[in-house]
Amino acid sequence: MSSQILNSINHQKIEHTPIWLMRQAGRYLPEYREIRAKAGSFLNLCKNPELATVVTLQPLKRFDLDAAILFSDILVIPEAMGMELNFVENEGPKFSNKIMTEQDIDNLDLNDMLAKLEYVFAAIKNCKGELNSTPLIGFSGSPFTLACYMIEGGSSKDYVNAKRWLYNNPELSHKLLNKLSDAIIQYLIKQIESGVDIVMLFDSWGGVLSDAAYLEFSLPYLEKILKNIPQVNHLGSKLPRIVFTKGGGLWLNKISAIGADVIGLDWNINIGEARTIVPANIALQGNLDPVLLAIGDRNALKKEVTRILGSYRAANGFNNTGHVFNLGHGVLQITNPDNVAYLVDLVHELSRA
Amino acid sequence: MSSQILNSINHQKIEHTPIWLMRQAGRYLPEYREIRAKAGSFLNLCKNPELATVVTLQPLKRFDLDAAILFSDILVIPEAMGMELNFVENEGPKFSNKIMTEQDIDNLDLNDMLAKLEYVFAAIKNCKGELNSTPLIGFSGSPFTLACYMIEGGSSKDYVNAKRWLYNNPELSHKLLNKLSDAIIQYLIKQIESGVDIVMLFDSWGGVLSDAAYLEFSLPYLEKILKNIPQVNHLGSKLPRIVFTKGGGLWLNKISAIGADVIGLDWNINIGEARTIVPANIALQGNLDPVLLAIGDRNALKKEVTRILGSYRAANGFNNTGHVFNLGHGVLQITNPDNVAYLVDLVHELSRA
User: Fold this and answer.
1) Of A49, B4, B207, B280, which has the fewest Cβ atoms less than 10 A away?
2) Averaged over B242-260, what is the pLDDT?
3) pLDDT in tens, B28-44
4) Is A288 in a helix, a strand, or coil?
5) Which of A158, A160, A291, A307 would you mutate first to test chain B, the one with the most B CBs within 10 A?
6) pTM for this one?
7) Is the CATH code 3.20.20.210 the one for domain A4-352?
8) Is the ipTM of this complex over 0.90?
9) CB-based contact B213:A268 (threshold 8 Å)
């Protein structure tokens, strides 16, 4: 398989800077909302391989994207380990039984997990059957990010409960994070066997930690996962691994040392400066502000895309390779799909010039 | 006036690392809640110089803090310019008339502003009369942070409305930010004339911006303010100016160039690394995670305080001077005051050793 995104990650010659968008399959698309309504609930949609395949492919039908990302959710792992998960409209995910004691950690069941997640692997095989040469990205949440949701029971403002665990019970926290890492390794190995071409680790909440806490409770587990999943796909080709810590711009030199092939950037950091910090053999992914995509007029979008592409190029010997264009976080629900179409074509056009 | 905090900021010999805490006067203190109830509303409390003085001094009665910070709110400026402000219980500040058009900017009234803010200057004079040698910190929100609240009408998750202004209407945004800068300059000059010993600019939301947007819409206005307020107090002594952009760890080298005497750090950055980035003549303030203060046991608190003090010292030639201990953001409401007492004494004790 040869593609613009794999070539760019492998620092080979590209025709244009490849682009895909975090949460490119989602609520901003009317055709997604239709399927979501049909499925009855968000979790039903994740668990239905046929419908999950349809929504995975929807954005690729509309936009000239360079990769697909499997439609799923990071919380299917704790759900498959026995936690009861609900997605409450406008409130996000909720676990009715949060992790509060060591017994709760011991109760997390790894034995049945992969069998329960069979719907994910079935969706991957379906997608691969439909995608031809477009790479499919598989993913998982990071151990720390999953632990946050499992301890808080849902989203959180200050992560008081999760941090109470880390600060006051570091040994138990490590026990939970190790168990989650083992689960994620099994899950990603099976995703790779099922056919994904790239894997990505979403450390969505790593950026809420202090420097010391990030280096103790998040980064080592990202490294553990990278060390224990294959570096080649089921056909024996190189399989790139993307690591994204939102709010992790200060730790790029440390993230560079754990074995990632691509580092995801949020919009806080100047991508040209990131290019000078991250070793040249590691590609960069990012980093448009998702709010700009949602509400920006074309003039504003063009100005910022030009700046990002130019900043990368200038720091990379006037060469676009090694860059995967993306947002700095997921597509917002309020985004007009016409803006997405404009962005995708714009990135291709400006980077070809 | 000589004090540990002024000595530390001026890189002179200190007996211990000085400490004060953002939002040290506030809802975590039962004696504050009593006065707040008496005042009827948060805004009434801000507008009553006698009661504002009482709550400013409350934490100094309990804890061995090295500075007082005037009890007030950053939103008194837009309120004094004619915007209708309410603090809704558990929802935070709300403006009933948000900034939506150029006419709304033109309607902001600078002429009566200082007269309306007389209660602030009266509270400063009261506090100074009570404080003896403990320095009093005056403050303002940054132009960008005030603009966020004024455009959003309150707090926000993604700052969609504020960013719509910045991205799609940069000229009008600059008009608003310039007008706010002028207001802040007048306000801080009057605070200084009234007797504050230190001033601090809170750029609480600068960290939600992209690198390019921060450099265009926040940093230049912080610089404009620093260039236009006195560098000496009403008695002719040096008056330090603290700049704090929450989430601004990636921009320390740029913040260092605008004329601040102290740079505030949130808890994301390693303070020792910050010390190597920021020129030696600029002091650093920070940077304990406020959640740790709220929920940490003594063992966890001691471990992290030891780490922060040690990290600073090691990067500063094994010398504590130039460091002002603080949190990386305000004291959380759920904080146990006993933890604050423990922290203040711990910082003093460990830094004396």
Assistant:
1) B280
2) 98
3) 999 999 999 999 999 99
4) strand
5) A291
6) 0.96
7) yes
8) yes
9) no
